[in-house]
Design brief:
Layout lengths: L9 E4 L3 H12 L5 E5 L14 E2 L6 H21 L5 E2 L3 E5 L2 H17 L4 E3 L1 H7 L10 E5 L3 E3 L1 H14 L3 E4 L5 E5 L2 E7 L2 E4 L3 E3 L5 H6 L8 E10 L10 E4 L4 E6 L2 E5 L25 H14 L1 H4 L12 E11 L6 E4 L5 E5 L9 H14 L21 H13 L23 H6 L3 E5 L2 E6 L24 H11 L2 E4 L4 E6 L1 H7 L11 E7 L5 E11 L2 E6 L4 H10 L3 E4 L4 E7 L3 H6 L13 E6 L2 E6 L8 E7 L3 H12 L5 E3 L1 H11 L40 E8 L11 E4 L2 E12 L4 E9 L7 H5 L2 E5 L2 E8 L9 H4 L5
Helix pairs in contact: 1-5, 1-9, 2-5, 2-9, 12-17
């Protein structure tokens, strides 16, 4: 047995490309007392059999930036180690063969512009010129990314490991982690047989075995090992300069290898690898399953006729293959990485690479090291943060159902607003059964069933407002009816899914919140919590319940993340989300409706909270709105939830009140300029840049205060000239014909009848006023460019009279 050190600053578990990258980047930031442990030899878990594709254009700006960073890392590794990281910069093609895929391709091209990626949209003929072997008769267009290519996975991992060792990291192979010591909710050590390495930082980078390693500390990590297969043909003179190709309509990808072609694909009927101890043996592979691979192989044969000519007999002659690789890949419920700190303090995870992780491995190491050393990474990584999953993700059946669904639809066109049905329903509001009776169309977030809209009274009324293009695919005229009812009478929204955290400790909360929390009991405060760079880590309301007790309300999927941020800074936090139902009654008739149900005074002011009785139900009523109309958030213990909903419906319907869903709420908040964390505001944007300076209390000390300098950008409201062209987020924005930004969020404002979008624009546009800029701003929507006007403030009720004043006053 190798003698291990008694202590280390950090221990990395797993010697694949993720673990090697994390170790290398920790050392680059000065943490050189790091030890990496691998039970086999380096890369012998899942890294070694990766197909190695590097496609820079991903679905989010963060993933794209991580991959772009990775590409820039390779020369650095070569210089430091003298080792070739195995990079083949052959460029990449992404094909579109259907009208729907062509629309997606145009959206991707727009996204590439906002990311600063070098790319071109090619005709079928131009794509064939790039790859003469390819049949392009059905190709409508192709996206060409010259910065794409592929990596040899073992070479990359060895280069990262060598770089880590040169910086002082110790790498030990052939040792198995048998335990993780946890005391008082924090990791304290790593056990290897009888030896213990004392440490307060452990990174679980064990790939498909990450779930098993997590369980050593009592942590559930939703990793699902799924069997993935590709083949490599025998050589037939394919040039090494051949670009990589993705043909998602035919669920196949391919590239050159050894003078032949590597062919892989995402089958529609994937299989989970059932193993009590995943990766217990090195270089685990399964028997080839060519019947399951038939669709991808036949697609490749149609695209590359030379492959079809290699076939004999059943069309999958083994003699055509130099090798068949059928191995395990670590998938997650939503097909995104699992990064960040777990519920055990100091225990981090970097796993769940879902086939495409090799491309981002350098970026993964970068953000993980920054997170561990500095407290937050440079990029907004919430979409990959393990804290996006709550306790609902603990069950292996849920994770498996979601992961299988994610894998089987990996190459499908993903339409904004489209809802997946796997593992549903799971979490339901007390009023869920009533929503079903009312014909609700449900969406899902964090396992919660949430109403998108209710069945319209007349399905044809309002149809003329259906947006053009993708925005009109998952849409209903009921959205407009619900918005107008909220404006004219009242809307009743079920926001039970919103996360609710109860916190003890005024001093600690004051230190974390940019606004002043030390207000009288019953005050509701809108605030952000910032990181050391001044970026927004959370966007919340905080209600003071008593002298030292507070309730924080945040978005449905942000509760675990925000609670983790609070606990990391020493606060006592209790998640009470499931303990309370929440219904929001907003609109000019809200006072009349609620007045019929209570004898309590309802005239208390805006951003105040009171305990009242509604019918027979005890309620905490908060004068807060996300719709821009007068009204309340009404909280009651969950067991009263159905009674409260019924009482509000019975009292409200005679006044013209309508139950309403989240799609209407999104429209209403856009008109008022209310921001959404993760879209309009992120850990990369400051409150000043986001137009939230009013929520910053400059006379007190708080984390991030010293970083709030002059803004570089300002979040602007854009009104598109064509109201049927609707932004969905991510669309490119040009100023004077030059790429300047991307849309953070957008939609249609039914109270103002405008197409609205938000985007960050440079504060100092040389020689131009806002009025002059307005005529030069264009937004890329549905394959064309639409002129947009910059507006100075909220489009609806900019003076806030409807929110702050009592109806009729």
């Amino acid at each position: 047995m190798v003698k291990l050190p008694a202590e280390a600053q950090a221990v990395v578990v797993g010697g694949g490309v993720a673990g090697c990258s994390v170790a290398y980047h920790l050392a680059r930031l000065g943490w050189t007392d790091v030890i990496l442990l691998e039970q086999h030899e380096l890369t012998e878990g899942t890294t070694w059999h990766s197909a190695g594709f590097v496609g820079q254009l991903r679905s989010t700006v963060t993933q794209t930036r991580m991959i772009m960073y990775s590409a820039g890392l390779y020369p650095e590794l070569s210089e430091l180690t003298g080792l070739d990281p195995g990079w083949h910069g052959a460029g990449g093609l992404r094909l579109a063969t259907t009208p729907e895929r062509y629309e997606e391709l145009l959206r991707q091209a727009g996204a590439a512009e906002t990311y600063g990626l070098d790319m071109d949209v090619l005709s079928a003929a131009d794509a064939r010129d790039m790859l003469p072997l390819m049949e392009v008769g059905d190709v409508r267009a192709a996206l060409w990314l010259p910065g794409d290519g592929w990596l040899d996975p073992a070479s990359l991992a060895r280069a990262l490991a060598a770089g880590a060792e040169k910086l002082g990291v110790r790498i030990v192979t052939g040792v198995q982690v048998t335990g993780l010591d946890v005391q008082d909710g924090r990791v304290r050590g790593v056990r290897v047989g009888e030896q213990v390495i004392a440490t307060e930082t452990v990174v679980n980078a064990a790939g498909a075995a990450a779930g098993k390693v997590g369980r050593l500390a009592g942590v559930d990590i939703p990793i699902v090992p799924i069997k993935h297969q590709y083949v490599v043909t025998r050589p037939f003179g394919v040039p090494a300069t051949t670009p990589t190709v993705r043909d998602p309509d035919n669920i196949v990808y391919f590239r050159e290898e050894g003078g032949g072609i590597l062919v892989g694909g995402y089958i529609r009927t994937p299989e989970i690898w059932e193993a009590a101890t995943p990766l217990a043996e090195p270089r685990t592979l399964f028997e080839p399953n060519m019947p399951k691979f038939r669709e991808s192989w036949e697609s490749a044969g149609r695209r590359l006729p030379d492959l079809a000519r290699m076939e004999t007999g059943d069309g999958q002659d083994a003699a055509a293959f130099a090798k068949v690789v059928h191995g395990p890949e670590a998938f997650t419920p939503d097909g995104e990485f699992l990064l960040g700190e777990t519920t055990v303090a100091g225990l981090w995870v970097a796993a769940g690479f879902c086939v495409h992780g090799l491309a981002a491995a350098g970026g993964v190491g970068k953000v993980m090291a920054e997170w561990i050393v500095d407290g937050s990474p440079e990029y907004d990584v919430f979409g990959m943060d393990i804290r996006r999953f709550g306790s609902h993700a603990r069950g292996s059946r849920w994770a498996r159902a979601k992961a299988l669904d994610s894998y089987s639809k990996y190459y499908d066109v993903v339409y904004p607003g489209e809802e997946r049905t796997a593992a549903r329903p799971l979490r339901r509001s007390p009023a869920w059964a009533r929503h079903v009776e009312l014909g609700a169309e449900f969406g899902e977030k964090a396992g919660w069933e949430r109403v998108n809209w209710f069945a319209p009274g007349d399905a044809r009324e309002g149809e003329e407002f259906r947006p053009a293009g993708w925005a009109g695919r998952f849409w209903s005229p009921a959205i407009r009816a619900e918005c107008l009812a909220t404006r004219d009478t009242a809307g009743l929204f079920d926001q039970t899914s919103f996360s609710k955290l109860e916190i003890t400790g005024l001093a600690g909360l004051q230190r974390l919140c940019a606004n002043d929390i030390d207000r009288p009991v019953g005050t509701v405060v809108y605030t952000q919590m910032l990181n050391e760079r001044g970026g927004i880590e959370a966007d919340v309301t905080v209600t003071r319940l008593s002298g030292d007790r507070f309730r924080m309300v945040t978005g449905t999927v942000f509760g675990v993340h925000d609670a983790g941020w609070l606990r990391r800074h020493g606060l006592d936090v209790r998640d009470v989300t499931s303990a309370y139902a929440c219904y929001c009654l907003w609109g000019p008739k809200a006072l009349d409706i609620l007045g019929e149900l209570t004898d309590d005074d309802l005239t208390f002011g805006y951003m105040r909270a009171r305990e009242i009785s509604v019918g027979l139900v005890p309620v905490l009523a908060q004068r807060v709105t996300f719709a821009g109309e007068f009204g309340w958030e009404l909280y009651c213990p969950a067991e009263y939830g159905l009674t409260l909903w019924d009482a509000l419906m019975e009292a409200g319907l005679p006044h013209g009140m309508r139950p309403a869903g989240y799609r209407a709420l999104d429209s209403l908040r856009l008109e008022k300029g209310y921001r959404v964390w993760g879209l309009d505001i992120t850990p990369e944007t400051t409150p000043i840049e986001a137009g939230l300076g009013f929520a910053v209390h400059g006379d007190k000390d708080f984390i991030g205060r010293d970083a709030l300098g002059a803004p570089r950008y300002s979040l602007c409201c854009l009104v598109l000239a064509d109201p049927r062209q609707i932004c969905l987020g991510g669309e490119p924005v040009r100023v004077g014909g030059v790429p300047a930004s991307r849309v953070t969020s957008g939609g249609y404002g039914h109270r103002v009848d405008r197409s609205i979008a938000y985007a960050y624009l440079p504060v100092d546009e040389p020689g131009a006023t806002s009025a002059e800029l307005s005529g030069r701003v264009e937004v890329g929507v549905n394959g064309g460019w639409v002129t947009a006007e910059i507006t100075g403030g909220p489009l609806y009720d900019p003076s806030d009279k409807r929110v702050r004043r009592l109806p009729g006053s």
